[in-house]
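Protocol step 4 of 6: structure prediction from sequence.
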Amino acid sequence: MVQGKDIALCLVAIVLPPLAVYINQNKLNGVVCLNLILTIFVWLPGVIHAIWVILKGHSVKAVRGLEDATEALIPDL
């Protein structure tokens, strides 16, 4: 579900896409670097990528949580 924070980040993404992705990711990683490259070379793909990252963040966090829970239940062999 889209929250108020996500809407605010989408508005930031229109002006400064890499900043919005950085705030969403809470760290400087490959996703932020990719968005920076997209924004530098062609601004519109950077905006689209930033909004996609922000809106897809909830499903990614859910999958990561499921992976962590699975690893806790099933030890490495």
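Step 5 (inspection) to follow. Residues 43-73 form the longest helix (31 residues).
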